Amino acid sequence: MNTLITPINFDKDEEATIEFERISVGTACKTLKNGFVSAVGHEGTAKVIEQLCGISVPVERRTIFFEKGDEGIHFFLKQRLPEGKVLSKEELENLDFWFVRSKRIM
């Protein structure tokens, strides 16, 4: 995902517990190489992850909801961008970011 948001379907579940862990680029890439469903909605972000990990990252602006046991890998920019700003791959490469793993445990 290209956000740290962890979507929960509150029409179905009244509460949820999510664990977050900052992970290294290597750990993120290793995890993604095992297979994933993309929810990366910005082409520039997908290209940066592709370059970092050597994998194909489809651009998919999809709605997802975490079920118990689901995990996510989040590409998180450490700064807020101006409203409406869409970054190119080159611009993203110059920003600080984290990879974060999330897991819904309840």
Short summary:
It contains three helices and three strands. The longest helix has 11 residues.
Low-confidence regions: none
User: What is the strand arrangement across the widest sheet?
Assistant: 1-3-2
Examine the secondary-structure arrangement and name the CATH architecture: 3-Layer(aba) Sandwich
Count all strands and give the number: 3
String of helices and strands: EHHEHE
The radius of gyration is 14 Å
Strand content: 15-25%
Give the overall form.
globular
What structural category arises from helix and sheet content? alpha+beta
CATH class: Alpha Beta
Relative helix content: 10-25%
| SS element count, helices | 3
Distance between the termini: 20 Å
Task: Describe the overall structure.
With 106 residues, the protein is of the alpha+beta class. It has one domain: Rossmann fold, CATH 3.40.50. It contains three helices and three strands. A three-stranded antiparallel beta sheet has the order 1-3-2, with helices on one face. The chain is globular, with a radius of gyration of 14 Å. It starts with 17 loop residues before the first strand and ends with a strand.
